[in-house]
Amino acid sequence: MAESVPVRCPVCRREQLYAPPSYPCTCGAPVQPPMARSAPQPVTHRTWADDWVSVQCEACGRKDEWPQPELGCACGTVLRIPVAEGATTHGRPAPSLPVHIPLPRTSSSPRPAFQPVTIRSARDAITAVALYLRWLGYRDIRSAEHRTSSGIGLVATGLVAQVEPSLRPATLRDVECLWLTGTAESALSVYFSLSGYVADARVRADELGVPLFVVDLTGTPQPVNSRADELYSAGA
Predict the structure, then answer these.
(1) Angle, CA of 183, 187 and 193, to the nearest 5°
(2) CA-CA 20 to 30 A from 105: which of 14, 35, 86, 156?
């Protein structure tokens, strides 16, 4: 467990203790971004590059991209916590429960347990899904170049994913548009929603072979259909 460090907000001058989050490396060891001694900076706008940091696992030496440490101040300011030298920023980077009968989960290459991040905002939902996809084996997760009319897109080699972080259930049109995007890219299409799916969207997803997940507020995606169960079991 990392030691808490004092962080002073440059806007209101309030000081509070902050401990960096821990994320699971592929080898199973916990990885925590090392904190720098420089002052935190208010987040005034966001880019994909600024939201991720490359951190090396002390156990196996592997470098992976993890969410840039941030802290919310009581004054409303979001602070970006600087990381120490050696961890450099990288230029890429209540839902309904599933009612289907899950398939047996017998992955041929067992993965360490997924470590979720609690969802308090839309950004948290995107982070949770990105971490989950990386846990499944998609290493080059990055933001889609074009925003869609609904949700936020993530892509990786052989994958297009849609994340709907609002309280609106995903519709049949949402699923079909994602499937068309994946077909054009010759990639697997996967949908993640915080509020589930309308009935005809689930039926259409089964017909098109689109894995559907709901993301609970702990940040853990849960399979909604059999194709999602298969992806969970087999990974990338």
Answers:
(1) 90
(2) 156
